[in-house]
Amino acid sequence: MKPSTEQTESGGLASFACELADLARPMAMEYFRRNIPVEQKADLSPVTHADRSIEASMRALIEKTYPGHGIFGEEHGASHLDSKHVWVLDPIDGTKSFVTGMPIFGTLIALLEDGRPVLGVISIPPTGELWIGRDGQATQFNRVACHTSTCTGLADALAYTTSPDNFDAAGLKVFDRVSSLSAMRRYGGDCYCYGLLASGHIDVVMEMNLQPYDFMALVPVIEGAGGVITDWQGQRLHLGSDGYVVATSTPELHAEVLETIGA
C-alpha cells in the first residue's frame, strides 16, 4: 500500500529532526570539556559559544529546508510563531552539566503543528543516545520502540528532579512531599531524565521554572512511550505553560502525583 501524503510528510519531518540532531552532536562534542568562556544571561543561567553556534546552525538548516516554518530557540529568539509549523530548539539542555564536564546534557528538538507538539527529539551527544517521539506512534530509542515502566504507585516509584535549586521555596516543599512518598529520590539529568523515563528506568520527573524549549520536545517522547506529561494542574503543555512540569510512567501514577501535589 502506498503511504499517504500525510505519512510521507510526517516521516520526512522526523528524518529532518534527526538530521538536526546529527548536526548538533559533533558541534557539542567539539566544545565539550574544553576551557571555553561561560557567560551569564539575564536570568542568571549560563550560556556559551557552543549553545549559540549550535542553535544558529540548526536554524540555518531549517530556514533553508522549510522556509515557511517558524522557529523558537533558547538563544536566538522566536520568528514566525504564527506559522502552522514551528520548531522549538534547545541546543544544549543542561548547560551547567556541559560546562562542568558532566556527560548528561542533551539537544532538544520539537515540532509544533498548530501549536501542538507532534514531534520531539531528545539527543544525548556524549553517549549517542536518541529518543524520538511522533504523534500517534511509539517512541523509539536508537531506532527501537521503547516503553515506560508499569509503575502505578508512588511507593514503588523512582523519582527524579534536576536540582532542588531549580525550585522556589513553595515548589520545593511540594516536590519534597511527593518525592518523600517514593521508593527512591535522585537528582540530576535535565532532559536525560525524561529519556530514562521513556525507556522505563525511572518513573517520575518533577520540575518547575522550565521554558518551552525545555519541555516541548519531551511531550511526544513521553506520550509515545506510554507515559503522561502535564503541568502540575494536569493540563497539557503548550508554549504558554507556566513551566511547572510533571512526567510519570503511567496514568495511575500521574493521578496519585497530582493528588499529592494538591494535598
What would your notes on this structure say?
The chain folds into two domains: 5-145, 2-Layer Sandwich (Fructose-1,6-Bisphosphatase, Chain A, domain 1); 154-261, D-Maltodextrin-Binding Protein, domain 2 (3-Layer(aba) Sandwich). The protein has an eight-stranded mixed β-sheet, sandwiched between helices. A five-stranded mixed β-sheet has the order 12-11-13-15-14, with helices on both faces. A hairpin with a 3-residue loop joins strand 3 and strand 4 (77-79). The model is unreliable at 1-8 (pLDDT under 50). It is built from eight helices and 15 strands. The chain has helices at 5-31, 49-65, 95-99, 169-179, 191-198, 212-215, 218-224, 251-261; strands at residues 39-40, 46-47, 70-73, 77-79, 85-93, 106-113, 116-124, 129-134, 140-141, 144-145, 158-161, 184-187, 204-207, 228-230, 245-248. Helix 5 packs parallel to helix 7. By secondary structure, it is of the alpha+beta class. 34% of the residues lie in helices and 25% in strands. Its EC number is 3.1.3.15.
Average pLDDT, rounded to a whole number, is 94
**What share of the residues lie within helices?**
25-40%
The general outline is globular
As a percent range, the share of strand residues is 25-35%
Total of domains: 2
- How many DSSP E strands? 15
Name of the CATH architecture of the largest domain = 2-Layer Sandwich
Quaternary structure of the protein: single chain
Distance between the termini: 52 Å
Low-confidence stretches: 1-8
Rg calculated over all Cα atoms? 18 Å
Structural class: alpha+beta
Main beta sheet strand tally, sense and closure:
8 strands, mixed
Order of helices and strands: HEEHEEEHEEEEEEHEHEHHEEH
Count of helical segments? 8
How do the strands of the widest beta sheet line up side by side?
Answer: 4-3-5-6-7-8-9-10
Classified in CATH, the superfamily of the largest domain is Fructose-1,6-Bisphosphatase, subunit A, domain 1
* Top CATH class of the largest domain: Alpha Beta
CATH fold annotation of the largest domain? Fructose-1,6-Bisphosphatase, Chain A, domain 1
